[in-house]
Amino acid sequence: MNPEQFKLFRRITLDYFAKLAPREEPVMAEPHMHFGDPELLDYTSLIEIDGEYQGCIYLSSPVSMLKDVLMINGELRDTPDRLKDMCQEFSNVLSGNASKAFGGNWRISVPRTLTRPEVQALDLPESTFVMPINWRDNQSLLVVGLRAAREGA
Amino acid sequence: MNSRVVFPQSVYRRTDEPLPEGLRLKALEWALYFAVTGRHTAAELGRQMRAEAAERDEALTRLMTLGLIEEQELDASEYVRALAAAGSREERTLREFLMAAAQPAAAPVETNEGSEAHPSPRQAGHGSATTRQAVPALPAVSRRPGPREVADITLHVPGGAHRPRRTSPPAFGFKPLPSPNDDRKETLPMSASRRLSLRALMNLIESQADSQEAGQLDIYRVFVRVDTTLLRRNGIVTLRFTEDRLVSDPELEQALVMSLKKTLGLNCPESVWVDVA
Fold it and tell me: Which spans in chain B are helix H?
C-alpha cells in the first residue's frame, strides 16, 4: 500500500459522501492508530485485502448515518433490514474504491456487511489506522487494519 | 588485551555489518545491540538494562563474537571519563563527597562493579567521584544526615555542579563520550530517567517521508510490527500522530527501535530519547 494508493482511496471514499449531499461536505477528522479490539460502530462494511500485508479495510457507521443516507435516497423506512441494505451499498462502494486504488498489487475480497457482534467474532488485525469521517452531524470510521504477512508482524 | 574481555569502562559501538538474516538473540542482547552508540560504558548500559555484570558481559561478548559490535578505542582523557562513568552513580551528601575526595589514598577503592573494576593508577590516585571509597569513620561526619538535613547540599556525584575546594587534581565527573559519527553538542546521559518520546519518533518518520500521508502510513507500518499487548500494557490504546507519550518500558522501546529498523531501515537517533526530571 503506497501513499498514492492510500490517498486515492481516502479521497474517493470522501467523494462518495460529498456526492450524496453536495452542500454538506464530509470532513476527515484527525486520524489515529488504535491497538487492540477494533473500534466499531453499529454496522460495518468490510473487505479483506492481501498483498504486501494481509488485513482489511472497513467503514463502520452508526445507525444515524445510515438513516440519513436512506432518507437522501428517498427511503423513509429504517428497519434493520433497510439499514443493512444501506450498509451493503457502502460495502460495494468501499470494494469498488479499493479495487480502483489498490487494484494492481492487492487481492480484494468480496465485500461483507456486518453488525457489530458479527465483526467482533472475526479475527481482525489489532493495529489499525483509523480515519474518522464527519458528515451531517454523524461520524463514520474508515479503518485500515494490516498485519505483516510474511513475518507475522 | 584479549578483545573479548569486557571491562565495565569499555565503550562499544555497532559495526557496519548488516544484521544476518534469521539472526536470533536474547532480549538483553538485542537491547544492548541497539543501545551501543559509542557513547556509554558497558557498566552504564548494564545499569540501564538492570542486568547483572556477568549477564551483561556475556551478552556483549556474544555480540562481539557475532561481529555485530566492536569496542571503541579511547584516548587517555576519554578513558578516564569512561572509568568515572563506569562507577557508582548514587547520590551523596556534600560531606560524603568531600570525605571521599579528601581520602582517596587512605582506603581501598571499592567500585560498585566489585571485583571486575579495572585497576588504574589514575583511578586510585584521583578518587573518581563515581567510585565508592571506603572512608574511615570520623566522629563529626561519619553519620549520614537525614533527608531534611541534606536537602540543600545533596549532590548527584557524576556531573555534579558543586566542586569541592581541594589541592589534588579534580575528580572526573560523568560526561558521556562524544559519538564518533555525531557532531551534535547535546549529551544524553543514559539513566533510568530516559524515556523514548513517541512524538519524536513519529516526527522522525514523517521527516523522512514525502508527504504527511506517506509519513502517517510509515508510522502505522512501524507500529504494525509491534505487539499490541506491549502497547496496551503501557496504556497506549489510541495514538494520534500529533500526540506524545513517553515510553519507559525497555521491551516496548526495543520493539519500536527494531521495527523502525526493519520497516524503514532507520536507526533510532539519540534525539528520540528525552530526559525526564
Answer: 27-35, 42-49, 53-65, 76-85, 94-102, 121-126, 147-150, 198-208, 212-224, 228-233, 250-264
**Cell numbers 560523568 label which residue?**
B174
Radius of gyration, alpha carbons of chain A = 15
CA torsion through residues B147, B151, B155, B156, sign: positive
Q: Which residues of A touch B (CB under 8 A)?
A: 1, 3, 6-7, 10, 30-36, 53, 125-127, 129, 144, 146-148, 151, 153
Question: Which residue in B has a C-alpha nearest to residue A31's C-alpha?
Answer: B240
B65-104, pLDDT tens digit by residue? 888 898 888 877 778 777 777 765 444 555 655 555 455 4
CB within 8 Å of A14: residues ≥ 6 apart: A26, A28, A133
pTM of the model: 0.57
Residue B206 Cα, gap to closest chain A Cα (Å) = 12
Cα distances (angstroms) measured from residue B224 to each of A30, B187, B197, B255: 19, 31, 18, 11
Instruction: Record the cell numbers describing residue B179, joined without a space.
Output: 559519538
Backbone angles phi, psi at B211, to 5 degrees: -150, 170
The β-bridge partners of A50 are: A54, A107
